[in-house]
Amino acid sequence: xxxxxxxxxxxxxxxxxxxxxxxxxxxxxxxxxxxxxxxxxxxxxxxxxxxxxxxxxxxxxxxxxxxxxxxxxxxxxxxxxxxxxxxxxxxxxxxxxxxxxxxxxxxxxxxxxxxxxxxxxxxxxxxxxxxxxxxxxxxxxxxxxxxxxxxxxxxxxxxxxxxxxxxxxxxxxxxxxxxxxxxxxxxxxxxxxxxxxxxxxxxxxxxxxxxxxxxxxxxxxxxxxxxxxxxxxxxxxxxxxxxxxxxxxxxxxx
Length: 254
Hints:
Arc Repressor Mutant, subunit A, globular
């Protein structure tokens, strides 16, 4: 699809926060750019339908043409999206500029798109959902991508990424949405992961013992939820194997 870009490049504004509607529009553009590239950039009608679709959206929305046009103007002014005219096309289409402006590859785009569309979730859930847009082969690779996004200030977490049951979310909420960031932390030197068995952990345990603090020994969660990430990963592997088997059968004419 040949594209004719805007005559004037919009001025890029570093992302520090996005409104609820801006997150939905930007998340939808990210998602569709990865899942249906043949229909991307999106027409206004396709973008409205994408924002209001009933799958992979939380909360559900019912934005109309006026809502979306208003948000498009705002995002366009911030340099986060561009309107393009396709060769032979009768209407403008819209695309995000995050790959161009921030250098995000497919994995980072998929993670951010998923968080913008659904918000806070556990690592296993995030990997399973984001993998619909771009392959993320393991939780370790997911953590690596998240760590980079946290360092840049786009992602926050409820604790160190290597721990079980951790939840992550984007860090682009408005100040008026502080309830959305409860229990979450942005990246800092103090919040970098410390793997069990290191000197820092051992020293912390020794200090707790010396002070007679027994709470440190009762904070490790023990529940069926601890296996959630592993179950999600196994489901992902089974799904991938089923897809490969179906493709092999198709090629063999079975």
